[in-house]
Amino acid sequence: QVQLAESGGGLVQAGGSLRLSCAASGRTFAGNTMAWFRQAPGNEREFVAHISPNAARTTYADSVKGRFTIARDNVKNLVLLEMNSLKPEDTALYLCAGGLRSILKSGTGATDYQYWGQGTQVTVSS
Hints:
Low-confidence stretches: none
Radius of gyration: 13 Å
Mean pLDDT: 94
Largest sheet: 7 strands, mixed
Strand content: over 45%
Distance between the termini: 40 Å
Number of helices: 0
Number of strands: 11
Structural class: mainly beta
Helix content: under 10%
Order of helices and strands: EEEEEEEEEEE
């Protein structure tokens, strides 16, 4: 079992930066693929990025590639999302996810994950 809690969201102007954190509890954290998703009002949950258990492999949505960076600290049980060059279309509730249901899952679908945080709101003004 893994419990997740996001922080670091806020209001920022276009072109600015934010750093999101996801604190995880549970002894199985280090063995889990971890991910960030986002959801804007009226939209489906959208994949942002994921990172493998040993941080050797990362994957990004095309919409954030080159601007966002995902990282993890398996000692502190943290997953981070560094967001630069933010755009108004990045405005959403950002959610941390973990625990792939199967190694056969791609990790880019919301249903691929067992554990979810409550989310942290990111608002980018133009």
